[in-house]
Write a structure and sequence with these properties.
9 helices, globular, 34% helix, six-stranded parallel sheet, alpha/beta, three-stranded antiparallel sheet, 232 residues, binds adenosine-5-diphosphoribose
């Protein structure tokens, strides 16, 4: 049966109240990427960076999945073939909406990582500067998110799924950050069908077989309904 691979971005969580990055008033209009989302920024001012992620962790903790997240979980449950969700998002709204096996290629807000021994644990709500690692006790805890200049997570597994995709969907992403922005050309070259669901045309829009424009909470459930009816 047909395998579906879905890439999501900040747009699918926008209607849950989590800010996107590049929309009007987005996170990157409030903070400089080099200050809060690079290893250099963290080394320069760990208090600023821990504060940035503590604030995002608090916002994410009170957010609820929207019909877009719920529809993708419904697709996973109702589709006879495999449905793999790869997300650039660091929130846990896909899982809260019932999705399983979600691959967080940019890490997770709820995760803490020890920069010294690579131990991972559930992040405290408020991560302090020089937060000690519970294993090696070095004062080197950081958010377990992927910063610019760092390697995204799960890339080998993601490549494997992209190679097997019969249908690829990109939902709520501006297509401005690699390697995620290159997924559509990778799967199209391998013969997959492609569809984009987004509030506005993105940097990738011309590369899809089909583009559906609108808010995720409306167009994602409609797309899932069409798929489950069609059983492509
Ligand atoms: N429904 C659907 N799409 C939406 C909605 C919505 N309600 N609101 C916004 N969008 C779309 C915007 O049109 C935009 O194309 O979501 C996209 C958000 O783009 P970005 O803010 O660039 O977010 P994203 O593509 O996820 O960024 C990728 O960049 O900064 C890094 O690590 C960060 O994971 C992030 C990566």
């Amino acid at each position: 049966m047909k395998k579906i691979v879905i890439l999501t971005g900040a747009g699918i969580s926008a209607e849950s109240g989590l800010g996107t990055f590049r929309d009007e008033g987005g996170l990157w209009s409030q903070h400089r990427i080099e200050d809060v989302a690079t290893p250099e920024g963290f080394a320069r001012d760990p208090k600023l960076v821990q504060g940035f992620y503590n604030a995002r962790r608090a916002t994410a903790a009170s957010a609820r999945p929207n019909p877009g997240h719920l529809a993708l979980a419904r697709l996973q449950a109702g589709w006879p073939g495999e449905v793999v969700i790869v997300t650039q998002n660091v929130d846990a709204l896909h899982e809260a909406g019932g999705a399983t096996g979600v691959l967080h290629m940019h890490g997770v807000l709820a995760g803490a990582l020890c920069a010294a021994c690579q131990h991972r644990w559930h992040a405290p709500d408020e991560m302090r500067v020089n937060e000690p690692c519970p294993v090696c006790h070095a004062p080197t805890a950081r958010p377990d998110v992927v910063w610019f200049g760092e390697m995204p997570y799960h890339m080998e597994e993601i490549d494997h799924h992209l190679g097997e995709a019969d249908l690829f969907a990109a939902i709520g992403t501006s297509g401005q950050v690699y390697p995620a922005a290159a997924f559509v050309s990778q799967v199209a070259a391998a013969g997959a069908s492609t569809v984009e669901l987004n509030l506005d045309p993105s940097a990738m829009t011309g590369q899809f077989d089909e583009t559906r424009i609108g808010p995720a909470s409306q167009i994602v459930p409609a797309w899932v309904d069409d798929l489950l009816r069609s059983r492509i």
